[in-house]
Amino acid sequence: MKTIVLKRGNHSYIVKETVKVLSSGGLVVFPSDTVYGLLADATNKYAINKLIEVKNRPFGKVISIFVDGWGMLDKQVEILSSQKQVLHEILPGAFTVILPSKHQVDSRLESEKNTLGIRLIKYLLINQLVRAFGKPLTATSANLSGKQPHYQLSTFQKELSSKKTQLIDLAIDAGNLPRNRPSTVIDLTKANIKVLRQGDRSVDKIYISKSEKETKKIALSIFNQNKKNVVKKPMVFIISGELGAGKTVFIKGIGEELGINNIISPTYTIAYEYPLKDKYFNKLSHFDLYQIDSAQDLEKIGIEEVLKPNNLLMFEWGEKIGNLIKVINKRAYIVYINIEYITEGSRKLRVSYNS
Amino acid sequence: MKILAIDTSADETAVAVVEGRRIISNVIYSQIDIHKKWGGIYPTLAKQAHEERIDGVVEKALKRFMIYDLRFKNIERYMDGIDAIAVTQGPGLAIALEVGIRKAKELAIQYQKPLIAVNHLEGHLYSCFAQNRFGKPTYEIKFPYLGLIVSGGHTEIVLIKGHLQYQVLGETLDDAAGEALDKAAKLLGLSYPGGPVIEQLAQEIGQIDKYHFPRPMLQSRNLDFSFSGLKTSFYYYVRELPEKEKIKSIKYLVSSFQEAVFDVIVKKTESAIKQTGVTNIIIGGGVCANLYLRKRLRAMVKKNNGAIIFPPFKYLTGDNAAMIGIVAGYKAKANQFVKNSDHLDRVTRMSL
């Protein structure tokens, strides 16, 4: 491994030497805005082979790339115009952005979902280098997989076996890098889940609520009207509505009547369950599908297990229930609730049933 | 006493071996590790995923423990060095908790070890007392403490008078702080995980509070939190903004939102100090990885002549089993074992 020490005045020499090595499929240890990185031509199969060998990187673990500007970024990933505007506000910066890949780089850098991590940073030397090279470079940290990244070239070199040292062609020593944190990852890939549409449901009734208290009251009255009709089936509320519309408030209204006063939204745990002492119901399962992004995940959160008589199921972000609605339809009594903003303080609640 | 601890409360399969406050081995199998970084899908909160991983993670934790304790050269006998099994009983996702509980029961019966059930929230509080395997850091535990838990799923203030003695002084009535941050980020198209992205963007503009969003519950005298009103107000404000301006102001929007959330956390904690006279603070949960929140809390606590302890290692802010093991050690001392392991069941919405 040849080493060049970064000095004032030798930047263009370093760029020239590094481009030479990268063009012939070589690996280079290079300073960056965060830690020392291991650079390789992201489109060169042999270079990526070497990179994976040095890093011990398990197959299927992905590697992000450096681009020098928006032109190169556009060639690598698919961006919606709305996303582009957001990205222009935050890049270049200390982020790694995940987007659908256009498959211009070695496929081993991409995820199983065909996404690619992109870095457009504020570090002049890297930008000059990528520009001179004309193609994206790998932006992985110079360390073995699972080990800490390095802020000093020498600590990385110590970690390497002699065989691995031979695989690396060039190292640029910029001394101790400032201990900036690794980049923050922003995932801009879109969720892939079927959304439930109004379809052939008949709207039964519309309520207007002017306060949380009123929403709770309305919820309770809808619950009471319907529970008599539930015979030997679970009862399911599928509640939809935008962020902050009052979905949790609705559920609290019913919960409080059933003696549960500590309902909070289970956004991260997906579901909370509460035992009930009620004539009709033994258990309340409160689901929040906000975090669910794939049909596979939806199948695995245990909905069918609680879809039993005498159980009460409530779904927030119920529009994401997708195909599971067929199973629920067969086995349960369903009430659909949609909550809409009228003003900041008032809401429209629409109740509907399968027709 | 060496304890093997298991936590499967959400998406991470975590197993650790601890002795007292010392973490001897700690293994976290995290989907987040992969997905947060690359995949673009959320952690599969799957029973199946936990089931597939749990045996391997237990074995890995034990192997790392073996390397430390050379008396046990034979991998077949690695359980010999373990005195008790601990497991998270709740709160968490039912089907995820079940996997850990079942494994813990299985190990307890097979190797005839006592079983200890731990509340995940106790774990977050005790994460502040953790030490590495060499016993660092060394500070003594001095009760009483005010405990603050701020994570994606929880926001609460707890008075801790002694080991395992909790009194919840206030908690969120709707959304947790981390959840509010994530949702605000998502609203602006910044996606998951929102907290770290907001932290970074807000830092770039020096945490300016341009919009002064409402500080929910600051007027009320109790110590409960509520973030859903703030969320609604943010949603409404952003919705009314012209698209161009929204994007131009993105850093100012998230910074102002973060400021509102942190203001509430800091001020409620300060109220708790004033109400109880307790000035020593411990804090756990994912949101306390935010360095700006740490800075603000430190300043507030200093002003009140108190001291604040954060989890000493970064991995302790997220979900892990080491913190469960540390709690379990104190439970063992207090003779709080599970009497009949057949009856141990998950409690998804468990309180302190």
From TrEMBL, chain A:
Its EC number is 2.7.7.87. Residues 12-201 form the YrdC-like domain. It is found in: Cytoplasm. It holds the Pfam family Sua5_yciO_yrdC. Its main location: cytoplasm. Keywords: ATP-binding, Cytoplasm, Nucleotide-binding, Nucleotidyltransferase, Transferase, tRNA processing. InterPro entries: DHBP_synth_RibB-like_a/b_dom, P-loop_NTPase, Sua5-like_dom, T6A_TsaE, TC-AMP_synthase_SUA5. Belongs to the SUA5 family. PANTHER family: SUA5, THREONYLCARBAMOYL-AMP SYNTHASE. This is L-threonylcarbamoyladenylate synthase.
From TrEMBL, chain B:
It is found in: Cytoplasm. Its EC number is 2.3.1.234. One of its GO terms (cellular component) is cytoplasm. GO terms for molecular function: iron ion binding; tRNA N(6)-L-threonylcarbamoyladenine synthase activity. Keywords: Acyltransferase, Cytoplasm, Iron, Metal-binding, Transferase, tRNA processing. Residues 23-325 form the Gcp-like domain. Fe cation binds at H120, H124, D319. It is an enzyme of class 2 (transferase). It catalyses: L-threonylcarbamoyladenylate + adenosine(37) in tRNA = N(6)-L-threonylcarbamoyladenosine(37) in tRNA + AMP + H(+). The keyword Cytoplasm applies. Binds 1 Fe(2+) ion per subunit. Substrate binds at I149, V150, S151, G152, G153, D182, G195, E199, N290. Its cofactor is Fe(2+). GO terms for biological process: tRNA threonylcarbamoyladenosine modification. Required for the formation of a threonylcarbamoyl group on adenosine at position 37 (t(6)A37) in tRNAs that read codons beginning with adenine. Is involved in the transfer of the threonylcarbamoyl moiety of threonylcarbamoyl-AMP (TC-AMP) to the N6 group of A37, together with TsaE and TsaB. TsaD likely plays a direct catalytic role in this reaction. Belongs to the KAE1 / TsaD family. This is tRNA N6-adenosine threonylcarbamoyltransferase. It comes from Candidatus Roizmanbacteria bacterium CG2_30_33_16.
